[in-house]
Design goal:
The protein is mainly alpha-helical. 82% of the residues lie in helices and 0% in strands. The N and C termini lie far apart (71 Å). 22% of the residues are buried.
């Protein structure tokens, strides 16, 4: 009795890897676009890396993830950097730009 589980398993793994790459690219692209649209002095007032450093880090991660399609290394690093920006830096920049912050 033959089973098709190994064939189905391969398709599932490839589909999950492709979905993860696109998710990683999406998070990184949103973070990079948000970074590029913010004012540079707001980063200094927040006490984080300068705008150029964040933009460079996000752009390099985005380019390497898109060029290499490496799910395990660049995908994880890229989504990590994008999430750190989106969950740590972005709320601080939002507070500063809305006038509710300390700057």
């Amino acid at each position: 009795m033959a089973t098709a589980a190994p064939i189905f398993y391969g398709y599932v793994v490839v589909s999950i890897m492709i979905a993860f790459v696109f998710l990683s690219l999406g998070v990184q692209a949103v973070a990079l676009i948000h970074c590029l649209t913010q004012r540079g002095p707001a980063f200094q007032a927040l006490g984080t890396l300068p705008k150029g450093a964040w933009a460079g880090i996000l752009a390099v991660c985005l380019l390497l993830t898109g060029a290499l399609w490496d799910v395990l290394l660049m995908g994880m690093i890229g989504i990590g950097v994008g999430l750190v920006y989106m969950l740590d830096v972005r709320p601080g920049l939002k507070d500063i730009s809305d006038g509710k912050g300390f700057w």
